[in-house]
Amino acid sequence: xxxxxxxxxxxxxxxxxxxxxxxxxxxxxSAYGSAVGPKTFPLILGVVLGLLSLRLLYETFKLKSEKxxxxxxxxxxxxxxxxxxxxxxxxxxxxxxxxxxxxFLVIAFQxxxxxxxxxxxxxxxxxxxxVYAMYVQVLGGSLPRFSLF
Length: 149
What we know:
transmembrane helix; transmembrane; 70% helix; 2 domains
């Protein structure tokens, strides 16, 4: 991407992470005396987003000013991922987290880089089940289940 776009994106995501952290601190703690409560996962995500934003800003300012090439945006790829993200949101409650996330990731990975379908399926499955296991089993949260039956 362009240097200006990276700076703008880094600042925007840093502001979003700060907002995310402050809002997650407003969530009440665990009622059972556990160290892991409902605010733990959003707080961790906010901190990670903030650190990644700072890294992006650091790398953007660290790079020497190079002649920027005019980049063209691929609207077809953006459109496909945008439509699949909207469909993901609507299908999340209907077909559940695991299936909808897996399908969304497969579509997104294939749009970004066609081919290597086996690797796409493996990575999507590991990510989907990994997040599910971490959130449901470790943190004790709940995610939408398959509700057609």
